[in-house]
Protein backbone atom coordinates (compact mmCIF):
# COMPACT_ATOMS: atom_id res chain seq x y z
CA UNK A 1 0.00 0.00 0.00
CA UNK A 2 1.36 3.45 -0.92
CA UNK A 3 1.38 5.67 2.17
CA UNK A 4 0.57 9.36 2.29
CA UNK A 5 3.60 11.61 2.04
CA UNK A 6 4.57 13.60 5.17
CA UNK A 7 3.60 16.77 3.28
CA UNK A 8 0.13 15.40 2.62
CA UNK A 9 -0.30 14.35 6.23
CA UNK A 10 0.82 17.77 7.48
CA UNK A 11 -1.51 19.59 5.09
CA UNK A 12 -4.38 17.27 5.99
CA UNK A 13 -3.76 17.87 9.73
CA UNK A 14 -4.11 21.59 9.11
CA UNK A 15 -7.17 21.21 6.88
CA UNK A 16 -5.24 22.75 3.99
CA UNK A 17 -5.59 20.05 1.36
CA UNK A 18 -7.80 20.77 -1.64
CA UNK A 19 -11.16 18.99 -1.54
CA UNK A 20 -10.29 16.12 -3.87
CA UNK A 21 -6.93 15.52 -2.21
CA UNK A 22 -8.58 15.71 1.18
CA UNK A 23 -11.15 13.07 0.21
CA UNK A 24 -8.41 10.79 -1.09
CA UNK A 25 -6.41 11.31 2.12
CA UNK A 26 -9.47 10.50 4.24
CA UNK A 27 -10.13 7.35 2.23
CA UNK A 28 -6.55 6.23 2.71
CA UNK A 29 -6.54 7.10 6.42
CA UNK A 30 -9.57 4.90 7.01
CA UNK A 31 -7.57 1.90 5.88
CA UNK A 32 -4.04 2.77 7.03
CA UNK A 33 -3.19 2.62 10.72
CA UNK A 34 0.36 3.84 10.17
CA UNK A 35 -0.71 7.06 8.46
CA UNK A 36 -3.40 7.56 11.11
CA UNK A 37 -0.72 7.36 13.79
CA UNK A 38 1.43 9.88 11.93
CA UNK A 39 -1.55 12.17 11.57
CA UNK A 40 -2.41 11.88 15.26
CA UNK A 41 1.18 12.65 16.27
CA UNK A 42 1.32 15.70 14.00
CA UNK A 43 -2.08 16.93 15.12
CA UNK A 44 -1.07 16.64 18.78
CA UNK A 45 2.13 18.65 18.29
CA UNK A 46 0.23 21.14 16.13
CA UNK A 47 -2.39 21.74 18.84
CA UNK A 48 0.24 22.25 21.52
CA UNK A 49 2.22 24.67 19.40
CA UNK A 50 -0.92 26.55 18.39
CA UNK A 51 -1.91 26.90 22.04
CA UNK A 52 1.44 28.44 22.80
CA UNK A 53 1.32 30.66 19.73
CA UNK A 54 -2.07 31.95 20.86
CA UNK A 55 -0.44 33.47 23.93
CA UNK A 56 2.06 35.70 22.13
CA UNK A 57 2.02 39.08 23.80
CA UNK A 58 0.06 41.66 21.83
CA UNK A 59 2.97 44.08 21.94
CA UNK A 60 5.59 41.61 20.65
CA UNK A 61 8.21 43.48 18.62
CA UNK A 62 8.31 41.46 15.40
CA UNK A 63 10.88 43.76 13.79
CA UNK A 64 13.28 43.17 16.65
CA UNK A 65 12.66 39.43 16.52
CA UNK A 66 13.31 39.46 12.79
CA UNK A 67 16.57 41.38 13.15
CA UNK A 68 17.73 38.96 15.88
CA UNK A 69 16.97 36.01 13.64
CA UNK A 70 18.80 37.63 10.73
CA UNK A 71 21.79 38.26 13.02
CA UNK A 72 21.77 34.57 14.01
CA UNK A 73 21.69 33.53 10.36
CA UNK A 74 24.61 35.85 9.58
CA UNK A 75 26.50 34.39 12.53
CA UNK A 76 25.88 30.88 11.21
CA UNK A 77 27.08 31.87 7.73
CA UNK A 78 30.23 33.48 9.17
CA UNK A 79 31.05 30.37 11.21
CA UNK A 80 30.44 28.28 8.11
CA UNK A 81 32.80 30.46 6.06
CA UNK A 82 35.50 30.21 8.73
CA UNK A 83 35.09 26.42 8.84
CA UNK A 84 35.27 26.23 5.07
CA UNK A 85 38.43 28.30 4.95
CA UNK A 86 39.99 26.01 7.57
CA UNK A 87 38.75 22.64 6.30
CA UNK A 88 37.88 23.23 2.65
CA UNK A 89 34.42 23.05 1.02
CA UNK A 90 32.02 20.20 1.75
CA UNK A 91 32.02 17.42 -0.86
CA UNK A 92 29.16 15.20 -1.97
CA UNK A 93 30.16 11.61 -1.02
CA UNK A 94 28.46 10.27 -4.13
CA UNK A 95 30.58 12.57 -6.23
CA UNK A 96 33.61 11.39 -4.30
CA UNK A 97 32.65 7.77 -4.82
CA UNK A 98 32.03 8.19 -8.56
CA UNK A 99 34.94 7.45 -10.91
CA UNK A 100 36.74 10.71 -11.51
CA UNK A 101 37.92 11.46 -15.03
CA UNK A 102 41.03 13.09 -13.73
CA UNK A 103 42.81 12.89 -10.41
CA UNK A 104 43.56 16.11 -8.59
CA UNK A 105 46.22 16.45 -5.93
CA UNK A 106 44.86 15.28 -2.58
CA UNK A 107 44.12 17.89 0.07
CA UNK A 108 45.75 17.60 3.47
CA UNK A 109 44.08 14.76 5.46
CA UNK A 110 41.86 16.80 7.75
CA UNK A 111 38.83 15.09 9.29
CA UNK A 112 35.52 16.92 8.72
CA UNK A 113 31.82 16.39 9.00
CA UNK A 114 29.91 15.80 5.81
CA UNK A 115 26.63 17.77 5.60
CA UNK A 116 25.38 16.74 2.17
CA UNK A 117 21.66 15.96 1.68
CA UNK A 118 22.07 12.19 1.78
CA UNK A 119 24.39 12.28 4.76
CA UNK A 120 23.71 9.86 7.64
CA UNK A 121 24.07 12.91 9.92
CA UNK A 122 20.94 14.49 8.47
CA UNK A 123 18.29 12.88 10.76
CA UNK A 124 20.36 13.84 13.81
CA UNK A 125 20.84 17.36 12.54
CA UNK A 126 17.15 17.66 11.77
CA UNK A 127 16.29 16.45 15.27
CA UNK A 128 18.75 18.87 16.88
CA UNK A 129 17.50 21.77 14.77
CA UNK A 130 13.85 21.01 15.49
CA UNK A 131 14.60 20.59 19.18
CA UNK A 132 16.37 23.93 19.32
CA UNK A 133 13.52 25.67 17.51
CA UNK A 134 10.84 24.15 19.72
CA UNK A 135 12.77 24.88 22.92
CA UNK A 136 13.16 28.47 21.75
CA UNK A 137 9.45 28.65 20.93
CA UNK A 138 8.44 27.16 24.29
CA UNK A 139 10.74 29.60 26.06
CA UNK A 140 9.30 32.56 24.16
CA UNK A 141 5.74 31.49 24.76
CA UNK A 142 6.12 30.74 28.37
CA UNK A 143 2.46 30.99 29.43
CA UNK A 144 0.52 28.46 27.46
CA UNK A 145 -3.26 28.61 27.80
CA UNK A 146 -4.45 25.42 29.38
CA UNK A 147 -7.45 24.68 27.35
CA UNK A 148 -8.21 27.16 24.65
CA UNK A 149 -8.80 25.74 21.21
CA UNK A 150 -6.40 27.27 18.73
CA UNK A 151 -7.49 30.55 17.21
CA UNK A 152 -11.09 30.14 18.15
CA UNK A 153 -11.89 33.16 20.29
CA UNK A 154 -10.25 36.52 19.96
CA UNK A 155 -8.37 37.87 22.97
CA UNK A 156 -9.51 40.58 25.30
CA UNK A 157 -7.18 43.39 26.38
CA UNK A 158 -4.12 41.68 27.90
CA UNK A 159 -4.45 43.03 31.44
CA UNK A 160 -8.20 42.56 31.85
CA UNK A 161 -9.43 39.48 33.69
CA UNK A 162 -10.98 37.04 31.26
CA UNK A 163 -13.36 34.21 32.03
CA UNK A 164 -13.61 31.42 29.51
CA UNK A 165 -16.04 28.51 29.27
CA UNK A 166 -14.68 25.61 27.23
CA UNK A 167 -15.62 21.95 27.06
CA UNK A 168 -12.22 21.28 28.62
CA UNK A 169 -12.83 23.51 31.64
CA UNK A 170 -13.60 26.95 33.00
CA UNK A 171 -10.76 29.38 33.27
CA UNK A 172 -10.17 32.73 34.94
CA UNK A 173 -7.00 34.35 33.65
CA UNK A 174 -5.39 37.49 34.98
CA UNK A 175 -1.90 39.02 35.14
CA UNK A 176 -0.06 35.92 33.96
CA UNK A 177 -1.83 33.45 36.22
CA UNK A 178 -4.75 31.18 35.50
CA UNK A 179 -7.15 29.11 37.56
CA UNK A 180 -8.99 26.41 35.65
CA UNK A 181 -11.74 24.21 37.02
CA UNK A 182 -11.47 20.92 35.16
CA UNK A 183 -14.60 19.00 34.23
CA UNK A 184 -15.56 15.74 35.85
CA UNK A 185 -16.09 12.67 33.69
CA UNK A 186 -19.21 13.83 31.88
CA UNK A 187 -20.65 13.37 28.41
CA UNK A 188 -22.19 16.79 27.96
CA UNK A 189 -21.35 20.13 29.49
CA UNK A 190 -23.76 23.03 29.37
CA UNK A 191 -21.64 26.14 29.14
CA UNK A 192 -22.77 29.66 29.78
CA UNK A 193 -21.27 33.01 30.53
CA UNK A 194 -22.93 35.66 32.52
CA UNK A 195 -22.60 39.30 31.72
CA UNK A 196 -21.91 40.03 35.33
CA UNK A 197 -18.47 38.65 34.48
CA UNK A 198 -18.48 34.95 35.22
CA UNK A 199 -18.41 31.68 33.30
CA UNK A 200 -20.41 28.63 34.28
CA UNK A 201 -20.56 24.98 33.33
CA UNK A 202 -22.99 22.27 34.37
CA UNK A 203 -22.09 18.62 34.21
CA UNK A 204 -23.66 15.34 35.15
CA UNK A 205 -20.85 13.18 36.48
CA UNK A 206 -21.11 9.80 34.77
CA UNK A 207 -19.41 8.08 37.71
CA UNK A 208 -21.55 9.43 40.54
CA UNK A 209 -24.64 10.60 38.67
CA UNK A 210 -24.34 13.91 40.54
CA UNK A 211 -24.94 17.27 38.94
CA UNK A 212 -21.88 19.47 39.39
CA UNK A 213 -21.87 23.18 38.61
CA UNK A 214 -18.61 25.02 38.17
CA UNK A 215 -18.22 28.76 38.07
CA UNK A 216 -15.26 31.14 37.75
CA UNK A 217 -15.23 34.88 38.16
CA UNK A 218 -13.10 37.79 39.22
CA UNK A 219 -13.50 40.11 42.18
CA UNK A 220 -13.14 43.18 39.90
CA UNK A 221 -16.13 42.02 37.88
CA UNK A 222 -18.52 41.39 40.76
CA UNK B 1 12.02 11.33 4.22
CA UNK B 2 12.61 7.80 5.60
CA UNK B 3 10.24 6.52 8.29
CA UNK B 4 12.93 6.60 11.01
CA UNK B 5 13.74 10.25 10.33
CA UNK B 6 10.06 11.10 10.31
CA UNK B 7 9.56 9.58 13.73
CA UNK B 8 12.73 11.16 15.06
CA UNK B 9 11.45 14.55 13.90
CA UNK B 10 8.05 14.00 15.52
CA UNK B 11 9.71 12.88 18.75
CA UNK B 12 12.00 15.88 18.67
CA UNK B 13 9.06 18.22 18.31
CA UNK B 14 7.22 16.51 21.13
CA UNK B 15 10.14 16.10 23.53
CA UNK B 16 10.24 19.63 25.00
CA UNK B 17 6.52 19.47 25.58
CA UNK B 18 7.02 16.58 27.95
CA UNK B 19 7.13 18.04 31.40
CA UNK B 20 9.20 17.80 34.50
CA UNK B 21 6.74 16.65 37.12
CA UNK B 22 6.94 16.79 40.87
CA UNK B 23 4.63 15.73 43.67
CA UNK B 24 3.14 18.45 45.86
CA UNK B 25 3.24 18.83 49.58
CA UNK B 26 -0.45 18.70 50.58
CA UNK B 27 0.21 20.59 53.83
CA UNK B 28 1.61 23.53 51.90
CA UNK B 29 -0.49 23.46 48.76
CA UNK B 30 -4.07 22.89 49.96
CA UNK B 31 -6.36 24.01 52.71
CA UNK B 32 -9.99 23.15 53.41
CA UNK B 33 -11.73 25.60 55.73
CA UNK B 34 -15.10 25.00 57.32
CA UNK B 35 -16.50 27.46 59.85
CA UNK B 36 -16.71 26.23 63.45
CA UNK B 37 -20.10 24.70 64.16
CA UNK B 38 -20.78 24.15 60.44
CA UNK B 39 -23.49 21.62 59.62
CA UNK B 40 -20.93 19.63 57.61
CA UNK B 41 -17.59 18.18 58.69
CA UNK B 42 -14.67 17.13 56.54
CA UNK B 43 -14.03 13.43 57.07
CA UNK B 44 -11.27 12.98 54.50
CA UNK B 45 -9.60 14.59 51.51
CA UNK B 46 -7.10 12.78 49.34
CA UNK B 47 -4.80 14.95 47.22
CA UNK B 48 -2.44 12.15 46.17
CA UNK B 49 -3.00 12.53 42.45
CA UNK B 50 -1.97 16.19 42.51
CA UNK B 51 1.29 17.29 40.93
CA UNK B 52 3.26 20.31 39.73
CA UNK B 53 4.77 20.49 36.26
CA UNK B 54 7.29 22.97 34.88
CA UNK B 55 6.29 23.86 31.33
CA UNK B 56 8.37 26.45 29.54
CA UNK B 57 8.55 29.44 31.85
CA UNK B 58 5.38 28.49 33.68
CA UNK B 59 4.50 26.21 36.54
CA UNK B 60 1.34 24.19 36.06
CA UNK B 61 -0.20 22.70 39.18
CA UNK B 62 -2.86 20.02 38.78
CA UNK B 63 -4.95 19.43 41.87
CA UNK B 64 -7.29 16.48 42.12
CA UNK B 65 -9.20 15.55 45.20
CA UNK B 66 -12.44 14.15 46.47
CA UNK B 67 -13.65 15.81 49.65
CA UNK B 68 -15.75 13.55 51.85
CA UNK B 69 -18.18 15.57 53.96
CA UNK B 70 -20.57 14.38 56.65
CA UNK B 71 -23.94 15.97 57.36
CA UNK B 72 -23.69 16.96 61.04
CA UNK B 73 -27.10 18.64 61.08
CA UNK B 74 -30.50 17.15 61.95
CA UNK B 75 -31.86 18.06 58.48
CA UNK B 76 -31.34 16.67 55.00
CA UNK B 77 -28.90 18.62 52.83
CA UNK B 78 -30.10 19.30 49.28
CA UNK B 79 -27.21 21.31 47.86
CA UNK B 80 -23.75 22.60 48.73
CA UNK B 81 -21.49 25.24 47.24
CA UNK B 82 -17.75 25.47 47.90
CA UNK B 83 -15.54 28.45 47.14
CA UNK B 84 -12.14 27.80 45.54
CA UNK B 85 -9.51 30.52 45.97
CA UNK B 86 -5.96 30.68 44.64
CA UNK B 87 -4.93 34.18 45.65
CA UNK B 88 -1.27 33.69 44.93
CA UNK B 89 -1.93 32.55 41.37
CA UNK B 90 -4.84 34.69 40.25
CA UNK B 91 -5.35 37.58 42.65
CA UNK B 92 -9.05 38.32 42.60
CA UNK B 93 -9.85 35.19 40.61
CA UNK B 94 -12.26 32.77 42.20
CA UNK B 95 -14.03 29.58 41.43
CA UNK B 96 -16.86 27.64 42.93
CA UNK B 97 -17.92 24.02 42.83
CA UNK B 98 -21.58 23.39 43.52
CA UNK B 99 -23.43 20.12 43.89
CA UNK B 100 -27.21 20.57 43.75
CA UNK B 101 -29.65 17.63 43.67
CA UNK B 102 -28.09 16.13 46.79
CA UNK B 103 -30.11 14.21 49.33
CA UNK B 104 -27.79 13.71 52.30
CA UNK B 105 -29.57 12.49 55.42
CA UNK B 106 -28.34 13.47 58.93
CA UNK B 107 -25.07 11.64 59.66
CA UNK B 108 -24.68 10.60 56.01
CA UNK B 109 -21.41 11.18 54.17
CA UNK B 110 -21.34 12.59 50.66
CA UNK B 111 -18.52 13.55 48.33
CA UNK B 112 -17.54 16.60 46.30
CA UNK B 113 -14.97 16.11 43.58
CA UNK B 114 -12.54 18.97 42.90
CA UNK B 115 -10.27 18.99 39.86
CA UNK B 116 -8.45 22.16 39.00
CA UNK B 117 -5.36 23.50 37.35
CA UNK B 118 -3.32 26.53 38.31
CA UNK B 119 -0.76 28.19 36.16
CA UNK B 120 1.69 30.83 37.21
CA UNK B 121 5.07 32.10 36.04
CA UNK B 122 8.02 30.09 37.40
CA UNK B 123 9.62 33.35 38.43
CA UNK B 124 6.92 33.96 41.02
CA UNK B 125 8.05 32.67 44.37
CA UNK B 126 6.30 30.42 46.83
CA UNK B 127 4.06 27.43 46.35
CA UNK B 128 0.54 27.42 44.98
CA UNK B 129 -1.98 27.65 47.77
CA UNK B 130 -5.55 26.68 47.12
CA UNK B 131 -8.13 27.30 49.78
CA UNK B 132 -11.46 25.54 49.59
CA UNK B 133 -14.15 26.88 51.89
CA UNK B 134 -17.86 26.51 52.40
CA UNK B 135 -19.94 29.23 50.77
CA UNK B 136 -23.31 27.79 51.55
CA UNK B 137 -25.64 24.84 51.76
CA UNK B 138 -29.34 24.39 51.37
CA UNK B 139 -31.52 22.13 53.51
CA UNK B 140 -34.65 20.32 52.39
CA UNK B 141 -36.82 22.93 54.14
CA UNK B 142 -35.18 25.54 51.85
CA UNK B 143 -33.29 27.22 54.70
CA UNK B 144 -29.74 28.26 53.97
CA UNK B 145 -26.48 28.17 55.92
CA UNK B 146 -23.21 29.81 55.00
CA UNK B 147 -21.34 33.10 54.51
CA UNK B 148 -22.87 33.50 51.00
CA UNK B 149 -19.92 35.50 49.65
CA UNK B 150 -20.62 34.20 46.16
CA UNK B 151 -24.39 34.73 46.37
CA UNK B 152 -24.90 30.98 46.55
CA UNK B 153 -28.18 31.23 48.41
CA UNK B 154 -30.10 32.59 45.44
CA UNK B 155 -28.58 30.07 43.01
CA UNK B 156 -29.07 27.06 45.27
CA UNK B 157 -32.64 28.06 45.99
CA UNK B 158 -33.43 28.59 42.30
CA UNK B 159 -31.90 25.23 41.35
CA UNK B 160 -33.83 23.43 44.08
CA UNK B 161 -37.09 25.08 43.01
CA UNK B 162 -36.43 24.16 39.38
CA UNK B 163 -35.64 20.59 40.43
CA UNK B 164 -38.91 20.31 42.35
CA UNK B 165 -40.83 21.83 39.43
CA UNK B 166 -39.35 19.39 36.90
CA UNK B 167 -39.87 16.34 39.12
CA UNK B 168 -43.47 17.42 39.64
CA UNK B 169 -44.03 17.82 35.86
CA UNK B 170 -42.54 14.39 35.20
CA UNK B 171 -44.59 12.81 37.96
CA UNK B 172 -47.72 14.30 36.42
CA UNK B 173 -46.74 12.83 33.05
CA UNK B 174 -46.14 9.46 34.69
CA UNK B 175 -49.44 9.49 36.52
CA UNK B 176 -51.40 10.59 33.44
CA UNK B 177 -49.73 8.52 30.70
CA UNK B 178 -47.72 5.84 32.50
CA UNK B 179 -44.07 4.97 31.80
CA UNK B 180 -44.57 5.43 28.04
CA UNK B 181 -45.46 9.08 28.46
CA UNK B 182 -42.56 9.60 30.89
CA UNK B 183 -40.26 7.99 28.34
CA UNK B 184 -41.44 10.47 25.68
CA UNK B 185 -40.64 13.36 28.03
CA UNK B 186 -37.15 11.97 28.66
CA UNK B 187 -36.43 11.51 24.95
CA UNK B 188 -37.53 15.09 24.27
CA UNK B 189 -35.30 16.42 27.06
CA UNK B 190 -32.42 14.27 25.84
CA UNK B 191 -32.63 15.86 22.38
CA UNK B 192 -32.56 19.34 23.88
CA UNK B 193 -29.55 18.41 26.00
CA UNK B 194 -27.54 17.35 22.93
CA UNK B 195 -28.50 20.51 21.04
CA UNK B 196 -27.11 22.70 23.81
CA UNK B 197 -23.60 21.25 23.67
CA UNK B 198 -20.60 22.29 21.62
CA UNK B 199 -20.38 26.07 21.85
CA UNK B 200 -17.54 27.66 23.77
CA UNK B 201 -17.68 31.13 25.25
CA UNK B 202 -15.68 33.90 26.81
CA UNK B 203 -16.68 37.00 28.71
CA UNK B 204 -14.57 40.08 29.36
CA UNK B 205 -14.97 43.76 29.82
CA UNK B 206 -15.88 45.32 26.49
CA UNK B 207 -12.81 46.78 24.81
CA UNK B 208 -12.83 49.36 22.03
CA UNK B 209 -15.98 48.90 19.93
CA UNK B 210 -15.62 46.89 16.76
CA UNK B 211 -17.76 47.07 13.65
CA UNK B 212 -21.08 45.79 14.88
CA UNK B 213 -24.78 46.11 14.21
CA UNK B 214 -27.52 46.63 16.75
CA UNK B 215 -29.90 43.71 17.07
CA UNK B 216 -33.17 43.90 18.98
CA UNK B 217 -33.99 41.16 21.47
CA UNK B 218 -37.02 38.94 20.97
CA UNK B 219 -38.54 38.08 24.34
CA UNK B 220 -40.06 34.75 25.34
CA UNK B 221 -43.16 35.28 27.41
CA UNK B 222 -43.38 32.95 30.40
CA UNK B 223 -46.72 32.72 32.21
CA UNK B 224 -46.83 34.19 35.69
CA UNK B 225 -43.57 36.14 35.34
CA UNK B 226 -43.43 38.93 37.96
CA UNK B 227 -41.15 41.04 35.76
CA UNK B 228 -41.90 41.87 32.15
CA UNK B 229 -39.11 42.29 29.61
CA UNK B 230 -40.16 45.34 27.58
CA UNK B 231 -37.51 46.06 24.96
CA UNK B 232 -33.80 45.71 24.48
CA UNK B 233 -30.90 45.29 22.12
CA UNK B 234 -27.29 44.18 21.88
CA UNK B 235 -24.45 44.96 19.47
CA UNK B 236 -23.45 41.91 17.48
CA UNK B 237 -20.55 41.13 15.18
CA UNK B 238 -19.32 37.78 13.87
CA UNK B 239 -18.74 35.56 16.88
CA UNK B 240 -19.59 38.14 19.51
CA UNK B 241 -22.33 40.11 21.23
CA UNK B 242 -21.66 43.11 23.42
CA UNK B 243 -23.24 45.68 25.67
CA UNK B 244 -26.80 44.39 26.00
CA UNK B 245 -29.52 46.73 27.29
CA UNK B 246 -32.88 45.49 28.42
CA UNK B 247 -35.72 47.54 29.90
CA UNK B 248 -37.91 45.75 32.42
CA UNK B 249 -41.03 46.49 34.45
CA UNK B 250 -41.87 44.99 37.83
CA UNK B 251 -45.45 43.73 37.46
CA UNK B 252 -45.61 42.18 40.93
CA UNK B 253 -46.73 43.66 44.24
CA UNK B 254 -43.34 43.11 45.85
CA UNK B 255 -39.98 44.86 45.47
CA UNK B 256 -37.50 43.01 43.31
CA UNK B 257 -33.98 42.70 44.74
CA UNK B 258 -32.28 40.97 41.83
CA UNK B 259 -33.08 39.12 38.65
CA UNK B 260 -31.45 37.04 35.98
CA UNK B 261 -32.30 37.09 32.29
CA UNK B 262 -31.33 34.12 30.14
CA UNK B 263 -29.95 34.65 26.63
CA UNK B 264 -30.57 32.48 23.58
CA UNK B 265 -28.46 33.02 20.49
CA UNK B 266 -29.47 31.78 17.05
CA UNK B 267 -26.89 31.41 14.32
CA UNK B 268 -27.43 31.82 10.59
CA UNK B 269 -28.09 28.07 10.25
CA UNK B 270 -31.04 28.35 12.63
CA UNK B 271 -29.26 26.56 15.47
CA UNK B 272 -30.12 27.92 18.90
CA UNK B 273 -28.16 27.65 22.13
CA UNK B 274 -28.49 29.10 25.58
CA UNK B 275 -25.51 31.41 25.67
CA UNK B 276 -25.61 32.86 29.09
CA UNK B 277 -27.32 35.14 31.51
CA UNK B 278 -27.62 38.78 32.28
CA UNK B 279 -27.79 39.07 36.05
CA UNK B 280 -28.64 42.27 37.81
CA UNK B 281 -28.56 43.29 41.46
CA UNK B 282 -31.14 46.01 41.14
CA UNK B 283 -33.96 47.17 43.37
CA UNK B 284 -37.20 47.65 41.44
CA UNK B 285 -40.27 48.74 43.44
CA UNK B 286 -43.70 47.42 42.37
CA UNK B 287 -44.87 48.89 39.06
CA UNK B 288 -41.54 50.60 38.36
CA UNK B 289 -39.36 50.30 35.26
CA UNK B 290 -35.61 49.79 35.20
CA UNK B 291 -32.82 49.54 32.66
CA UNK B 292 -30.39 46.65 32.86
CA UNK B 293 -27.17 46.97 30.90
CA UNK B 294 -23.65 45.63 31.07
CA UNK B 295 -20.44 46.85 29.51
CA UNK B 296 -19.28 43.34 28.65
CA UNK B 297 -18.51 41.39 25.53
CA UNK B 298 -19.44 37.75 25.00
CA UNK B 299 -17.51 35.78 22.41
CA UNK B 300 -18.67 32.46 20.98
CA UNK B 301 -16.94 29.76 19.01
CA UNK B 302 -17.44 26.20 17.91
CA UNK B 303 -14.16 24.29 18.08
CA UNK B 304 -13.03 23.13 14.67
CA UNK B 305 -15.75 25.00 12.79
CA UNK B 306 -16.08 28.30 11.03
CA UNK B 307 -16.89 31.48 12.95
CA UNK B 308 -20.33 31.72 14.46
CA UNK B 309 -22.57 34.32 12.82
CA UNK B 310 -25.31 35.59 15.11
CA UNK B 311 -28.65 35.97 13.32
CA UNK B 312 -30.96 36.61 16.28
CA UNK B 313 -30.91 36.99 20.06
CA UNK B 314 -33.78 36.28 22.39
CA UNK B 315 -34.16 36.49 26.13
CA UNK B 316 -36.33 35.10 28.89
CA UNK B 317 -36.73 35.75 32.58
CA UNK B 318 -34.81 33.00 34.39
CA UNK B 319 -35.08 33.96 38.08
CA UNK B 320 -36.31 36.81 40.24
CA UNK B 321 -35.39 37.39 43.88
CA UNK B 322 -37.71 39.54 45.99
CA UNK B 323 -36.71 41.72 48.91
CA UNK B 324 -38.02 39.13 51.39
CA UNK B 325 -35.58 36.53 50.02
CA UNK B 326 -38.15 34.54 48.08
CA UNK B 327 -37.12 33.37 44.66
CA UNK B 328 -39.31 32.97 41.56
CA UNK B 329 -38.54 30.53 38.78
CA UNK B 330 -40.71 29.95 35.68
CA UNK B 331 -43.66 27.70 36.45
CA UNK B 332 -43.09 25.57 33.39
CA UNK B 333 -39.84 24.46 31.80
CA UNK B 334 -37.76 27.39 30.58
CA UNK B 335 -35.73 27.09 27.38
CA UNK B 336 -32.68 25.97 29.40
CA UNK B 337 -32.77 22.47 30.88
CA UNK B 338 -32.44 22.50 34.65
CA UNK B 339 -29.62 20.62 36.35
CA UNK B 340 -32.13 18.13 37.77
CA UNK B 341 -33.53 17.44 34.31
CA UNK B 342 -30.01 16.80 33.04
CA UNK B 343 -29.41 14.38 35.90
CA UNK B 344 -32.62 12.49 35.16
CA UNK B 345 -31.83 12.38 31.43
CA UNK B 346 -28.45 10.82 32.20
CA UNK B 347 -30.15 8.30 34.49
CA UNK B 348 -32.62 7.48 31.74
CA UNK B 349 -29.86 7.03 29.15
CA UNK B 350 -27.87 4.71 31.36
CA UNK B 351 -30.46 2.79 33.34
CA UNK B 352 -33.79 3.23 31.58
CA UNK B 353 -37.13 4.69 32.55
CA UNK B 354 -37.55 2.47 35.65
CA UNK B 355 -34.65 4.22 37.40
CA UNK B 356 -36.21 7.62 36.66
CA UNK B 357 -39.50 6.41 38.16
CA UNK B 358 -37.62 5.27 41.30
CA UNK B 359 -35.94 8.66 41.63
CA UNK B 360 -39.20 10.57 41.16
CA UNK B 361 -40.91 8.47 43.81
CA UNK B 362 -37.96 8.87 46.20
CA UNK B 363 -38.24 12.66 46.17
CA UNK B 364 -42.05 12.70 46.17
Give a quick account of the main beta sheet of chain B: strands, pairing sense, barrel closure.
Answer: 10 strands, mixed
Task: Please count the beta strands of chain A (DSSP E, at least 2 residues each).
Answer: 6
The level of helicity of chain B is 10-25%
State the CATH class of the largest domain in chain B.
Answer: Mainly Beta
Walk me through what this model shows.
The complex is a heterodimer of chains A (222) and B (364). Chain A is of the alpha+beta class. A three-stranded antiparallel beta sheet of chain A has the order 1-2-3, with no helix packed on it. Among the domains of chain A are: 48 residues, no CATH class; 60 residues, no CATH class. Chain B is of the alpha+beta class. Chain B folds into three domains: 137 residues, Immunoglobulin-like (Sandwich); 63 residues, no CATH class; 137 residues, Sandwich (Immunoglobulin-like), CATH 2.60.40. Chain B has five helices and 20 strands. About 1% of the residues of chain B have low confidence. Classes of the chains: A alpha+beta (222), B alpha+beta (364).
Give me some keywords for this one:
heterodimer; A: 222 residues; alpha+beta; 3-stranded antiparallel sheet; 6 strands; B: alpha+beta; Immunoglobulin-like; 3 domains; 5-stranded antiparallel sheet; 5 helices; 20 strands
Protein topology:
The complex is a heterodimer of chains A (222) and B (364).
Chain A: H1 6-13, H2 19-31, H3 33-53, H4 62-87, H5 93-97, H6 122-140, E1 162-166, E2 169-174, E3 177-181, E4 189-194, E5 198-204, E6 211-218
Antiparallel strand pairs in A: 1-2, 2-3, 4-5, 5-6
Chain B: H1 3-14, E1 20-23, H2 26-29, E2 30-33, E3 40-46, E4 51-55, E5 58-71, E6 77-85, E7 93-99, E8 109-121, E9 130-139, E10 144-145, H3 152-195, E11 200-205, E12 213-219, E13 227-237, E14 240-250, E15 256-267, E16 272-284, E17 289-293, E18 296-301, E19 310-322, E20 327-328, H4 339-351, H5 353-363
Parallel strand pairs in B: 2-9, 12-19
Antiparallel strand pairs in B: 1-4, 3-5, 4-5, 5-8, 6-7, 6-9, 9-10, 11-18, 12-13, 13-14, 14-17, 14-18, 15-16, 15-19, 19-20
Helix pairs in contact in B: 3-4, 3-5, 4-5
